[in-house]
Design goal:
Elements: H1 6-30, E1 36-37, H2 39-46, H3 50-57, E2 72-73, H4 74-83, H5 86-91
Helix pairs in contact: 2-3
Length: 101
Amino acid sequence: MLTLDKDAFKEMFSEIIKEEVTKALQDIRTTQLPPMLTKQQLEQLLNIKHAKASELLNRPDFPVFREAGVLVPTHLLFIWIEKNTRWIEDNTKYFGKGITA
């Protein structure tokens, strides 16, 4: 029977999460999306309601291009998602942070 200590388990789990997040982001990036998303496209892509989309679009750190209406640059959206995925940042080495017990 194979047994793992706590640190080995955390390391394995972190690597699995990192691989899956990387794969998911790559899959999303290779999907044909327009360079700029409308509010409705943002809602569909993130599977969120109108109110949550409005909340995101009004955040000062959320990437919005307002010079031609309310548009979200697709590439900046994915960068924002990566930077704001707290669980990954807090619990893996994906962003260069170590795991603390």
